[in-house]
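Figure 3 (text version): structure tokens given as input.
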């Protein structure tokens, strides 16, 4: 009798916090689909659910041979709750991954996992399948040979060390699963992320002394050194902006070939996805690695953006039937302002007109930017905003309060800066609270206090709200195309097709999730939401 196919459940806990997302509810990340693609290629039967579905008992855990859970550091409570439910119904292995796995020592106190996958996971997952882990047959000796995992099995606990960064030819082998996107509730209304660049080109280092005494020795290797020299720091300081762990976990930027991106997007839109976001630490890194190959792309400013590669990608995506017909839209997320030029803005505007672009600024202090390892300046951020707005894009800016090295004066300066951004054309300002991430340079600093507890931070958050409310007021009386997500208390919650504020739509009947409609904005609800009336169905 043939052996039954192994069944695995992937639980997406990304952004779930204590069990349910409170923000970015309309986002579906790329990671869990990448995991599903690897397992499907190895003949494993894959199912997928969100943490909320599992914890609300909408998705029973029984009947699976193994459970894989992906989350961020802030999602440990949800992951812990999921793991406890799993232990009640199965003695099969629990594998955790995503950013929270980097802090595997602390995680073990809350989650009884067998394996934590740290860093890039595709090759590691293939080897875990071969080891027999998913069938409950792996031994500690076998797991000890697999790089990139922390394991807890047979009373033994060990970390096997980070796996070397995948070379580009290996990175291109793996294809995420478009099929499992339909397992997400409301996926037809969500922004679905497609990874086009992995890693980050910023190999500068922070100049702020770290809690353990490590500090910059001014060797200038990460500023003036050869691309390969920048990879290593004599002082042992992790690369990149101090608050970010991407270069440590995923290495320098590597781009996916256009044909693979197009194939993935085609698969997603065939499943019913209509809002696609091209994901990268910096979308303008796309194809830059090809210009310096075989050396690693560890310089965030040179060479300049590879416009030929970017235009080839965007024009190919624009040629997909459902995109060219307007049934689906393609957007990009992050841009580093140092690479934005007039020509870059022109090309992006040609294909991405009336869609948002997110720009990291973090602080208005040029000195603090340099101290934390930022590769661009506040002045460059403003210039990028103006260029992108000129060519029909909608700039959003990010800031962080509570960074190591920050002063109250920096915060006050940043609040003033934020208030000036409306005139420059910024549509939305987002302010994050500094949270230390494992394997980042600032991983051992304390988490910042809430904004309301600190002078300057309160003013910064209020300044952001003022700018955001002002942009919402500009929508009053305008018609925008939205995707209906779900009905709640007499309103339909909807999202603009090309992204924007949450829209509460009145007077909608005989509608389904994923339906599109033209609505007229009637009221500003908050700095994040507006109310609208139905004009007509699309």
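Below: residues designed for each position.
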């Amino acid at each position: 009798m043939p052996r039954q196919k192994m069944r695995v459940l992937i639980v997406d806990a990304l952004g779930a916090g204590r069990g349910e997302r409170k923000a970015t509810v309309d986002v579906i990340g790329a990671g869990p689909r990448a995991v599903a693609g690897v397992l499907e290629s190895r003949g494993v039967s894959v199912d997928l659910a969100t943490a909320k579905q599992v914890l609300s008992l909408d998705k029973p855990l029984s009947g699976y041979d193994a459970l894989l859970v992906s989350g961020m550091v802030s999602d440990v409570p949800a992951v812990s709750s999921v793991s406890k439910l799993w232990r009640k119904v199965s003695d099969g292995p629990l594998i955790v991954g995503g950013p929270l796995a980097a802090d595997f020592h602390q995680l073990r106190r809350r989650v009884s996992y067998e394996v934590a996958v740290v860093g890039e996971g595709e090759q590691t997952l293939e080897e875990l399948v071969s080891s027999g882990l998913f069938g409950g047959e792996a031994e500690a000796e076998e797991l000890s040979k697999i790089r990139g995992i922390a394991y807890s099995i047979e009373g033994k606990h060990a970390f096997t060390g980070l796996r070397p960064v995948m070379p580009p030819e290996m990175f291109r082998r793996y294809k995420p699963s478009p099929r499992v996107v339909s397992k997400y509730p409301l996926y037809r209304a969500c922004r679905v992320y497609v990874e086009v660049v992995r890693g980050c080109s910023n190999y500068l280092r922070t100049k702020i002394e770290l809690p353990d005494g490590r500090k910059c020795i001014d060797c200038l290797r990460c500023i003036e050194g050869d691309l390969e020299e920048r990879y290593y720091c004599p002082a042992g300081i992790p690369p990149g902006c101090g608050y970010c762990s991407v270069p440590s976990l995923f290495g320098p930027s590597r781009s996916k070939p256009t044909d693979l991106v197009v194939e993935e997007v085609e698969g997603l839109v065939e499943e019913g996805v209509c809002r696609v976001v091209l994901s990268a630490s910096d979308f303008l890194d796309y194809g830059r690695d090809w210009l310096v190959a075989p050396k690693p792309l560890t310089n965030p400013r040179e060479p300049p953006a590879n416009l030929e590669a970017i235009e080839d990608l965007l024009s190919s995506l624009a040629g997909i039937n459902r995109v060219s017909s307007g049934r689906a839209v393609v957007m990009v997320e992050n841009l580093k302002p140092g690479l934005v030029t007039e020509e870059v803005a022109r090309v992006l505007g040609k294909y991405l007109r009336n869609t948002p672009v997110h720009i990291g600024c973090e602080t208005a202090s040029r000195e603090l930017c340099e101290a934390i390892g930022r590769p661009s300046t506040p002045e460059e951020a403003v210039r990028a905003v103006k260029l992108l707005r000129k060519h029909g894009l909608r700039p959003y800016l990010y800031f962080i309060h509570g960074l190591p090295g920050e002063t109250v004066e920096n915060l006050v300066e940043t609040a003033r800066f934020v208030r000036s951004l409306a005139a420059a054309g910024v549509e939305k300002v987002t302010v994050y609270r500094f949270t230390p991430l494992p394997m980042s340079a600032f991983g051992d600093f304390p988490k910042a206090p809430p904004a309301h507890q600190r002078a300057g931070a309160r003013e910064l958050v209020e300044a952001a709200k003022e700018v955001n409310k002002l942009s919402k007021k500009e929508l009053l009386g305008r018609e925008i195309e939205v995707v209906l997500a779900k009905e709640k208390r007499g309103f339909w919650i909807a999202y603009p097709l090309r992204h924007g504020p949450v829209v509460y739509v009145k007077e909608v009947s005989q509608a389904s999730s994923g339906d599109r409609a033209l609505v007229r904005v009637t009221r500003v609800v908050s700095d994040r939401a507006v109310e609208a009336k139905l004009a007509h169905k699309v």
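The first helix runs from residue 31 to 41.
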